[in-house]
Amino acid sequence: MPARPRTLHFNLFLHDTGHHEASWRLPGADPTSNLSLAAHQHLARVAEDAKFDSIFLADSPVLWSDPGRRPSGKLEPTVLLAALAVSTSRIGLIGTASTSYNEPYNLARRFASLDHLSGGRAGWNIVTTAGEGAARNFGLDDQPLHRARYERADEFLDVATKLWDSWSDDAVVADKASGVHALGSHVRPAGHEGEFFRVAGPLNVPRSPQGYPLLVQAGSSEDGKEFAARWAEAVFTAQPTLEESQAFYADLKRRAGAVGRDPDGVVVLPGIVPVIGETEAEARELDAQLDRLIAPQYALTTLARTLKVDPHRLSLDEPLPLDLPDEDEIEGAKSRRTLIVDWARRDRLTVRELIGKLGGGRGHRTFTGTAVQVADTIQHYFENGAADGFNIMPAVLPSGLEAFASQVVPILQERGLFRTEYEGTTLREHYGLARPRNRHDDGAGVPELGRVTAGVA
Amino acid sequence: MPARPRTLHFNLFLHDTGHHEASWRLPGADPTSNLSLAAHQHLARVAEDAKFDSIFLADSPVLWSDPGRRPSGKLEPTVLLAALAVSTSRIGLIGTASTSYNEPYNLARRFASLDHLSGGRAGWNIVTTAGEGAARNFGLDDQPLHRARYERADEFLDVATKLWDSWSDDAVVADKASGVHALGSHVRPAGHEGEFFRVAGPLNVPRSPQGYPLLVQAGSSEDGKEFAARWAEAVFTAQPTLEESQAFYADLKRRAGAVGRDPDGVVVLPGIVPVIGETEAEARELDAQLDRLIAPQYALTTLARTLKVDPHRLSLDEPLPLDLPDEDEIEGAKSRRTLIVDWARRDRLTVRELIGKLGGGRGHRTFTGTAVQVADTIQHYFENGAADGFNIMPAVLPSGLEAFASQVVPILQERGLFRTEYEGTTLREHYGLARPRNRHDDGAGVPELGRVTAGVA
């Protein structure tokens, strides 16, 4: 049987009025869409009509930015995605949740529940949650060390997968005649005793359609990439240039191979901010219009917090100070800080210019141009070892998504690079990834996460 | 303005194929409805068409019973209710969550999110979660002591209400011209430092339509009743007779008054299991049919666990042993155990007979008869100081709900005892309860939970 042709994958990164921090100030924007079910339903449906693989919600259990700056309240992802599951039928539903500030039993249960009620469309973006702000909402004075957070995350995944495997796929027999609903011998304890967790199990929900939710990850630090190589099936990443994307892509596939996984079982999805115009000039003007709406009083404070410097040391029309704290001294958003500093120095940006670029894409690559130009760039990345698909982060929502869906997607479909219909029903099927085997059902120990090869589903 | 006439309130207690443990074995039952979104949507819509105040999901973070006995896997309530919010428009959505095995920040966030996306229809049934099974899923060897669980629950509610009040109702201004989305001075830390929790806040979601979700509680122990008097706005209770319902009702209203609350601000809802037939004989035969389907091998084990005795000490055709452990030695399901033992001894039941009665109503009152008989009993309770409404627990679902909705509800509507249309849009409005004031918005300290009086909403 011939190998299935390699095609693109698209995830829509939902973010109320758009990823540009000033998008809520545009004349047509609904500035309370962050709390609106209807606004989220619309975005999910547009993405589903365009045959996107999935939608995605970021999250952190803390009020992340100054509430003045932009819409800052957010609905909790598993709850919001459950509502969106009812409003859609095929698109995948990926929610962020923290391994540092949740208990494995509760979180494994919620994702299994979402997977059941969506018919196998749940995905979990696994984060370890940097920052003392979140820590202080959970009884801590400061965040756990970077390394300790990843150690806990590893054990968290170990517990969660044990719980998701605690019911065999054939445990429920529902035999009315004998009065036996499930086979007790096919429902097993988790029996986990580790450094961070002791969890008896079994889970109180049977194994879900996908076995496990799709496991997604986005950390780009050394610990983050090692974690992704071990666990992630889809990886979001912020890479500002083609060359950096290619390097990240090759590195991650190599790391996955090094731990014995099929490199094709890890789908790499760089984030891009498409800004689409009828002409390139129109697209650039939309970009500039947004940057002019950024309120520097908030952006300066946020930048200073990210860089861990006193805000008074930053001047809008000067470059960054030279004596910033070293990377090793910084816990938390490790690689993001490095990326920002490197970028500002390489392009000799003033603080004001840096704020403009961060406000638009937050370090992700902005593709500004006509629909054909954007499609060409996507194809170029895809065919040159930089991406298996993209995490689409429109600067303005819903208009930026509508433009991408109606103008860019058809071009890629015509070129045979993107699906015109869903072939499967589950999120894993959209990404061409296998359903994990249950460790108890074949005696093979921990199941392998891997890619579906043609003819073997 | 004349006082609003006092009318009944109905909550539907959802429970897959019904509250009778053998209901899944009936010929028409869908034995996997526990995991079916469609089955839950149908039940929610029937209840909404009948103008019920709310639907309700019980929960515990543990596999509660032998998986052979009946459908035992359950979808997590906040996730399932979010999906049902999309499938309904007016009915309230009450979910159970544990104060012992959750973090206040996460849970306050999820209920606020559910309240936002349902337009003010969220309710939280607050439980402290008895049993070592749940404890062992969260790193403990045994459950915390009964008293300690309630002390933590009290502090949990203190933290949660601080978080729900952390955004003033008018904090979001969304001023596009000035670029200010929310007023920083109207978003305040929680600043909680207590025995069980330290939580900085603020919450990362603005104050929700109801301010707080409706606060519901069902513990009937001494600690549970004191907790209900302090916090609960609706109380579920299992009372096997009219006299016991009257005593509970009077006691709870007195306790609420004793802590300075309006007794009418606590709605008391005894659980009833209606079994409706064309004739009384038909109803009784349905009851008996269900009892014959109970598989004693599972029920005996469950009863022994509840009573904390060795299962081998229970014989199906003998009464309970006389030397059961004293109440004081039992942590956990305290009042439920007392109720069961008292009932078995008073009615001189054999273990088999006791199992039959527990399998049907689990200690709740079964109303068996024609629709008129059931309506008469409801009215009698309501007009004689035993109930403000009922927690409806059909033995068989959906048929028992459909019978109640189509036969009993119209009789009560005709008698002017139950609404024929929703008057409000929020869950609190259905129950005639006020929206809590924000402690920061009027300088009055902790807001009073209370009943809406006529003309003052």
Describe this structure in words.
Two copies of one chain form a homodimer. With 457 residues, the first copy, chain A, is α/β, with parallel strands linked by helices. Chain A has a single domain, classed as TIM Barrel. Helices cover 37% and strands 13% of the residues of chain A. Chain A has 14 helices and 13 strands. Chain A has helices at residues 37-49, 77-87, 104-117, 132-135, 146-164, 222-231, 242-258, 280-292, 296-307, 334-346, 351-361, 371-383, 399-414, 427-430; strands at 9-13, 54-57, 92-98, 122-127, 172-175, 180-182, 192-193, 198-199, 214-217, 234-237, 267-276, 365-369, 389-392. The first copy, chain A, has an eight-stranded parallel beta barrel with strand order 1-2-3-4-9-10-11-13, surrounded by eight helices. In chain A, strands 5-6 form a two-stranded antiparallel ribbon. Chains A and B meet through helix 2, helix 3, strand 6 and strand 8 of A and helix 2, helix 3, strand 6 and strand 8 of B.
Number of domains of chain A: 1
Radius of gyration of chain A: 22 Å
- Give the CATH architecture of chain A: Alpha-Beta Barrel
Helix content of chain A: 25-40%
Spatial order of strands in the largest sheet of chain A? 1-2-3-4-9-10-11-13
* Alpha-carbon distance between the two ends of chain A: 13 Å
Give the overall shape of chain A.
Answer: globular
Structural class of chain A: alpha/beta
Strand content of chain A: 5-15%
Q: Could you give a short account of the major beta sheet of chain A? A: 8 strands, parallel, barrel
Q: Helix tally of chain A?
A: 14
Which residue ranges of chain A are poorly predicted, with pLDDT under 50 across at least 5 consecutive positions?
451-457
